[in-house]
TrEMBL record, chain A:
Keyword Zinc (UniProt): no
Protein name per Swiss-Prot or TrEMBL: Polyferredoxin, heterodixulfide reductase subunit A
InterPro entries xrefs: 4Fe4S_Fe-S-bd (IPR017896), 4Fe4S_Fe_S_CS (IPR017900), FAD/NAD-bd_sf (IPR036188), HdrA-like (IPR039650)
Organism listed in the record: Solidesulfovibrio magneticus str. Maddingley MBC34
Keywords on record: 4Fe-4S, FAD, Flavoprotein, Iron, Iron-sulfur, Metal-binding, Oxidoreductase
Cofactor: FAD
Record domain 4Fe-4S ferredoxin-type: where: 233-263, 281-315, 575-604, 608-637
Membrane-crossing segments per the record: none
GO molecular function: 4 iron, 4 sulfur cluster binding; metal ion binding; oxidoreductase activity
UniProtKB/TrEMBL annotation, chain B:
Single GO molecular function: iron-sulfur cluster binding
Domain F420-non-reducing hydrogenase iron-sulfur subunit D, residue spans: 11-133
InterPro entries in UniProt: MvhD/FlpD
Region forming the signal peptide: none
Protein name, per record: Coenzyme F420-reducing hydrogenase, delta subunit
UniProt key word Oxidoreductase: yes
Keywords, sorted A to Z: Iron, Iron-sulfur, Metal-binding, Oxidoreductase
Pfam families documented for this protein: FlpD
The UniProt record lists the keyword Oxidoreductase: yes
Domain of life: Bacteria
UniProt organism field: Solidesulfovibrio magneticus str. Maddingley MBC34
């Protein structure tokens, strides 16, 4: 092998604390290294051209680049060596930026360490073999999980692009959180007026199949060929027959159940259609409150239903959908305000969340759009909004900013003034975060035109006095204590990961952060991709987002899916395990340990042997360290390669 | 150019690509200063780490070995770090039988976002190894002995391999 070593300055990022020329010179002493040089920016066009030129001039057969982390530029350099005619796997990187130059100032030690890292890269490269990817076909259907605004956008864009789309929604209607909102900031558009048509488009689009009241049960397969089991939960209403007329809701005798759609501030019937614009507009029976289920007798809905759609004996049903890509758009949930005991959320009826307030403002809400206190139905005059409840609070393990609360609180103060002209809104805030087009202007309007009083400081406690709530807090700008007699207290509850998000992430085999939000592939450059090929993210499941961001991500995820499906065949990553059939004794330990069911048992001349299914193998190498014979080896991370690295470090 | 005599000891790290290697990158991006002793070998998953690698590294003259993977339940490959945890725990108890101070080996979990945690892990482990001092060099260990060690750790017949 003829190896070339390229040591990158990365401007001064590496050169500042590593003597790259010395590293290059020292590399020439390593076996099979025939060429070594330092280069200003290896990843730049002249840098890559220099590598390509050197491969041609010096007849190199393998390349080591000592620069940044391979997680950053390994694909870049692989493409470069491929352009020069080498197999793209005849390439290794030494990470001398993140792991050396950026973490220490000692130039001598850093240079020395860089030489060591180049040494192990060379030893690994010497044992690399060219790898050729194989091709496999793609099933050009896409599944979108979650029918909020992000999922709706992703589904519509994919469907308009000509793909078949399967949309899975946990609730009985799509629409998500946006369907619950009264108005949207900063235009004060009616939320359901702008979302409604999109929901109708989903229902009427010939390319979209909607599974509402359904959940993803299990996911198998790999990019291009996923098999997803979808559990269609029992609705106890035959949706083929249900026309959404609502006769059952009128007659249902169990009327006082907390309405989930109205954030539990209004009642609903046991058989229910959540809101008038629901898509699909079909009824669902809640068996935990329905008298037929609880007491065993009632049957009123079955009697009044004009189409005979009620089926009390319905059971959950599993359907299998074969798709080639999956978009996760499962959204967020609200922080449980009862965890902040000093604010009394959950204890006092007149301490509510911003989303509950949204339902009070909405014309389709439980009060018909009139702001009434939950406790006595009176119109509140003094309303206190408290920001950052469950956001930016380390003590609650919610150190992140939920992003959209500052804006919706400003919107709510404006709407409050519109609804009740003689009302006064107070907002306790930490900082006003309103980056976005027309956003800061909007918050200023709330203060200047609508007279909302913004008080910078935290609230210490909220307690009842008579029929009022006393809000006691600090005004840090005035340096005083403040006490406000409020009729209603609205808490801007922070966003947290949707319930069940970690479990879904595990089914999707994607990572999630410690709060349960799904991890994108790269925080800056790959915001909708995940580390699992063929799985994309849209909306707040990745982190709190407002509506335009969610819509933008929905479209972005759709673009990624369309790009993926623009090819008829996909290339598999050839860095997978391979079985040496002479060494394999057919013990089957690898089959048992493989997390992806990527190894199967085959018969070879009457003997049992293991065989890797190329497209399923993800290249983790668990089988390699399990095999008692060393017969199954992960390409590019073979036992010999890792031991060669160990030897290079120990015997130098 | 070996380790800097008198300044550095020979510490080898085995890090999974997805979490801990990323965590070490994050520490770099955040410019979290660390001792320079550690040399990192990248593997796809902590489940790829054969206990034999660690035993061999220590027998071959490393003064310390640090393994780090994704937090349990957060493995990129779903369950690789569970295999790693079991193997590494067994190895830790087995090291004294090989005549190796188990304090020279440690394993931990660091996610790709935990740059500061990585800085702390490296600093504490390096200090721990420096407190122990250089390891006794096992010169001229015969391949047969290594094979026996391998066999004992694997609990199987890998010697044939």
């Amino acid at each position: 092998m003829r190896i070339g070593v390229f040591v990158c300055h990365c401007g001064s990022n590496i050169e500042g604390t590593v003597d790259t020329a010395t590293v290059a010179k020292a590399s020439l002493d390593f076996p099979e290294v025939v060429y070594a040089t330092d280069t200003m920016y290896a990843c730049s066009e002249p840098g890559q051209d220099g590598i390509i030129q050197a491969i041609k001039d010096k007849n190199l057969t393998g390349v080591v680049v000592a620069s940044c982390t391979p997680r950053m530029h390994e694909p870049t350099f692989r493409r470069a060596v491929e352009r020069a005619g080498l197999n793209r796997f005849m390439f290794e990187m030494a990470n001398i930026r993140e792991h050396v130059s950026w973490i220490g100032r000692d130039r001598e030690a850093n240079t020395n360490k860089s030489v060591d890292l180049v040494r192990i890269a060379v030893e690994k490269l010497r044992r690399d073999a060219p790898l050729i990817p194989s091709k496999f076909s793609v099933n050009k259907r896409v599944m979108v999980i979650g029918g909020g605004v992000a999922g709706i956008q992703a589904a519509l864009d994919c469907a308009d692009g000509g793909l078949e789309v399967v949309l899975v929604e946990r609730e009985s209607s799509i629409g998500g959180k946006m369907a619950k909102l009264d108005k949207t900031f900063p235009t004060v558009d009616c939320s359901s007026c702008i979302l409604g048509p999109k929901m109708v488009d989903v229902a009427q689009h010939p390319n979209i199949t909607l599974h509402a009241y359904s959940e993803v049960d299990s996911i198998g397969g790999y990019v291009g060929n996923f098999q997803v089991q979808v559990k269609k939960r029992a609705t106890y209403v035959d949706w083929e027959l249900c026309t959404g007329c609502g006769a059952c809701m009128e007659k249902c005798p169990s009327k006082k159940n907390p309405d989930a759609f109205n954030e539990k501030i209004g009642p609903c019937t046991s058989i229910n259609i959540p809101f008038p614009q629901a898509i699909p507009k079909k009824a669902v029976i809640d068996p935990t409150t329905c008298r037929q289920f609880v007491k065993g007798k009632c049957g009123v809905c079955a009697k009044v239903c004009p189409t005979g759609a009620i089926k009390y004996d319905m059971t959950d049903e599993i359907v299998t959908e074969d798709v080639g890509a999956i978009v996760a758009a499962t959204g967020y949930d609200l922080f449980d305000i009862s965890k902040v005991t000093e604010y009394g959320g959950g204890r006092y009826p007149d301490v509510i969340t911003g989303l509950q307030y949204e339902r009070l403002l909405s014309a389709s809400g439980p009060t018909g759009g009139h702001i009434k206190r939950p406790s006595d139905g009176k119109e509140p005059k003094n309303i206190v909004f408290i920001q950052c409840v469950g956001s930016r609070d380390k003590s609650l393990d919610r150190p992140y900013c939920s992003g959209f609360c500052c804006m919706y609180t400003a919107k709510q103060t404006i709407l409050t003034k519109d609804h009740i002209p003689d009302s006064q809104s107070y907002v306790f805030y930490m900082d006003i975060r309103s980056p976005g087009k027309m956003y800061d202007e909007f918050t200023r309007r709330a203060m200047e035109e609508y007279g909302a009083r913004y008080i910078r400081g935290r609230v210490a406690m909220v307690y009842p006095k008579g029929d009022k709530m006393i809000v006691r807090g600090a005004d840090t700008l005035a340096g005083t204590q403040v006490e406000i007699e409020a009729d209603l207290v609205v808490l801007a509850a922070g966003a947290e990961a949707a319930k069940g998000a970690p479990q879904l992430a595990e089914k999707l085999r994607i990572s999630y952060d410690k709060y349960g939000f799904f991890m994108e592939s790269h925080p800056k450059l790959k915001p909708v991709e995940t580390n699992t090929a063929g799985v994309y993210l849209a909306g707040s499941c990745q982190g709190p987002k407002d509506i335009p961001q969610s819509v933008g991500q929905g479209s972005a995820a759709a673009a990624k899916v369309l790009a993926l499906f623009s090819k008829d065949m996909l290339e598999s990553d050839p860095q997978i395990s391979r079985v040496d059939i002479k060494r394999c004794v057919g013990c089957g330990k690898c089959i048992m340990t493989c997390p992806f069911k990527a190894i199967k048992e085959v018969e070879f001349r009457g003997q049992k042997k293991a065989e890797v299914i190329e497209t399923v193998c993800q290249g983790c190498g668990i089988c390699t360290s399990t095999c008692p014979q060393g017969a199954i080896q992960l390409s590019h991370f073979t036992d010999n390669q890792i031991l060669a690295e160990v030897n290079a470090l120990c015997q130098s | 150019m070996p380790v800097l005599t008198g300044k550095e000891l020979r510490i080898v790290g085995f890090l999974c690509n997805w979490c801990s290697y990323g965590g070490a990158d994050t520490a770099g991006v955040g410019r979290f200063n660390q001792p320079t002793d550690l040399r990192i070998i990248r593997v796809p998953c902590s489940g790829r780490i054969d206990p034999l690698f660690i035993a061999k590294t220590l027998i071959n003259g490393a003064d310390g070995v640090l393994v780090s993977g994704c937090h349990p339940r957060d493995c990129h490959y779903a369950e690789g770090n569970f295999y790693a945890r079991r193997r590494l725990e067994v190895l830790k108890r087995f090291l004294p039988i090989l005549g190796i101070d188990p304090a020279r080996f440690d394993y931990t979990w660091v996610s790709a976002s935990e740059g500061q945690r990585w800085q702390k892990v490296v600093t504490v482990f390096t200090e721990q190894i420096h407190a122990l001092g250089p390891a006794t060099r096992h010169e001229n260990v015969s391949p047969e002995l290594l094979a026996k060690v391998a066999s004992a750790i694997q609990g199987g017949n890998r010697v044939a391999a």
